[in-house]
Amino acid sequence: MTQDTDELDSLVRKRIRALRVAQGWSLEDLAARANVSQSTLSRIENGRRRLALDQLVTLARALDTSLDQLVETATDDIVSHPMIDGTHQLMRWPIKADPGMTVVRQRMTNPPPDNPSRMRAHPGREWLVVLSGTAILLLGNRRFRIETNQAAEFPTMLPHAIGAEGGPCEILGIFDRDARRGHQRGEDAGSTGNANRPSP
What we know:
Elements: H1 3-22, H2 27-34, H3 38-46, H4 53-62, H5 67-71, E1 83-85, E2 90-94, E3 102-108, E4 125-132, E5 135-139, E6 142-146, E7 151-155, E8 160-164, E9 169-175, H6 177-188
Helix pairs in contact: 2-3
């Protein structure tokens, strides 16, 4: 076998064992789920038995994953750099696995808008965590106080806005494709209150 094949072989074996341990399963547990003998599974994990495609398919299914994920190799472009938007004090990272999703980091100093017309609604979902300070999330007719290290997830079809309370706060938000497009359309239309929203 080539060095690359040897490395993939070792990676797959380690991955099988790691997934089994993460589930809290013994060799016996996984062997029963995959309908293989415990000794066969032990030899697969320890490199004393050749990896057969049919067994990998069965093990992937038993481990609640796919064959593609089981044999996926490491990628070189692990580290990515943010795009900086100095005007809105934003850092953006696209998620490579799902190009429609974006991660945004923003520092906010303004309170949420007091005018309901400045709240936005659009398709999608958003998730955010407060890294420092306290944020106020207006969602429909409700008001949520989100402290440092607390998170919120909500459908963006509800009118929403977010701002700081009692001083600056910093948030990290994840936007799906629809939510990202909704905020971009709001910016293009000259929507007010951009300083109060993390705009992907």
